[in-house]
Amino acid sequence: MSPSKQDFILAVEGLTVSFDGFKAVNDLSLYLEPKEIRVIIGPNGAGKTTVLDLICGKTKATDGSIKFQGKELTKMSEHNIVRSGVGRKFQNPSIYEDLTVFENLEVSYPAGRSVIGALAFKRDAEVIKAVEEVAETIFLTEMLHQEAALLSHGQKQWLEIGMLLIQKPDLLMLDEPVAGMSVAERKKTAELLRVITENHTVLVIEHDMQFVGDIADRVTVMHQGKVLSEGSIDHVKQDPKVIEVYLGH
Amino acid sequence: MKANMFIEWLKSREGIYYLLLALLLVVVFPLALDSFRLNMVGKYLTYAFAALGLVLCWGRSGILSLGQGIFFGLGGYCMAMFLKLEASSPENTAIQSTPGIPDFMDWNQLTALPWFWEPFHSFSFTLIAVLAVPALLAFIIAVAMFKRRVGGVYFAIITQAIAAILTILIIGQQGFTGGVNGITDLRTLMGWDIRTDEAKTLLYFVCVGMLFVCLIVGAWVMRSKLGRILLAMRDQEDRVRFSGYDVASFKIFVFCLAAMFAGIGGAMFTLQVGFMSPSFVGIVPSIEMVILCAVGGRNSLLGAIYGALIVNAAKTFFSESFPELWLYGLGVLFIAVVLAFPDGLAGLYRRYVMPLESKLPAMLRRGNAEAQTLPVEEAK
User: Fold this and answer.
1) What is the pLDDT of residues A154-186, one digit of tens each?
2) CB B232 to CB A99 under 8 A?
3) Are strands A37-41 and A218-223 parallel, antiparallel or unpaired?
4) Are residues A240 and A42 in contact, defined by beta-carbon separation less than 8 angstroms?
5) Hey, what domains does chain A have and what are their CATH numbers?
């Protein structure tokens, strides 16, 4: 039916997780092609965030498989999943408020990840260059030496995206990246995502349909832990099932 | 090059704080205090080792340990075992039914030295054990807890329980440990009498030296990338984990380091005070160590040292004058600090004194200009 498995960067098959009998994600399958922007939408409680939790290892799957670049993720520890190239942004901006923007990015820089490595880590020209490059991408060059606590909500979201970018992940998962952003910030974020997808595959959870239409290659609609519909934005918008459970509201 | 950087650092604000502390401990106290009081200060400073560890572990990494007394005690007991064996030479213990073993063993009808006492005949083994025994136990606790993601209050309660267990174990195994009296009547270190005033003064300086070693190691860790990871972990543990770090290994590291600091403190305690007993291992001393750290400022290494000095000095003063009130006073102090000044003395200093300091350079420059015109002899 679909292209062979080797073509997919991420292949989720039969994924199920049950919390005390409640199946938050139920026999879900999802295939991502390299450099694709996929958006997951769906009503509250559909299990969208849980899917990201399962892929990045925060929640362990009850059943099913998650293959990323041919590697099975369901049995790997969180930090090894990250090291194999999966980056995850949380819904609320999770940044280190007591550190500067520079230090936030530096802590995320993928070197010195062991205890000894972190003790021996040196802030060399390469690190500084990588931090400055990412800071420019996320519009924070001016703020580099400010404490992250002083950033606006939108800037914090960008910083967290930057913290993922500096790790050069192959798959980037973003949980509601534009929630709480102003219109101008949304526009800039869409622009940012477009730059990002030149080199990364992106999986986004989002509610804002305007924004979804701006960025998505394909859209997956989830409902009660299952895939309700999948396809282009126009396709899912016209799907009567989607209109009934989600868009109709 | 390196030397230049060191001099630059000494001139920085941080460097000046370190110099002031060194001046206080190395010059002011020895000159101002008699040998009895100086020995007391040395004793207070041994708690500062544990407080330094807590700054790294609790203030920096958010791991509250209510069991630093465990590691302080283990370090102290290691040193005490060595000193006790030296004090229990066959000549000294000729009147015992089994000469050559510590007196309390003889009273408890032991006829041979237990196997785990044997290596403590060696001083080099003892020095290693002072670091390794606390670190090993800390490692076991940390692996068991942090790999299972036990943290916060649960971790604090478990460390406290272990402190209680260790006390009970030491008291119960009287024949091996000296029981509730502890290991007493320590006399010499490699033939050098540690009970004299001169010895105590020298040990005070050794203690200060070791404290500075720990202080510098602590400062180095805080300034490294590891220090920033610890802070990041305290505030956003999941973000650190999903940035590719094995969070547990960092927690294990910092907990073991804190345990080693406490162990050194315990060994210095035994040397300066001349005995070790379970009353320095259990829950109360462990909580006192947390209070020292909180009062001094749990995010400040230097604050922890001042906290140890001030709280212990207050303890001595108040418990001499109002013995029954002291514990309540300590409790009130802790609550007050946590509620009113969560960053302790260091926080108060940063908020109220530092702004004044920025006015100081202008005054100093004027002062320096005058000083430079003075002849060298007078400037001295």
Assistant:
1) 999 999 999 999 999 999 999 998 888 888 998
2) yes
3) parallel
4) no
5) 5-247 (3.40.50.300)
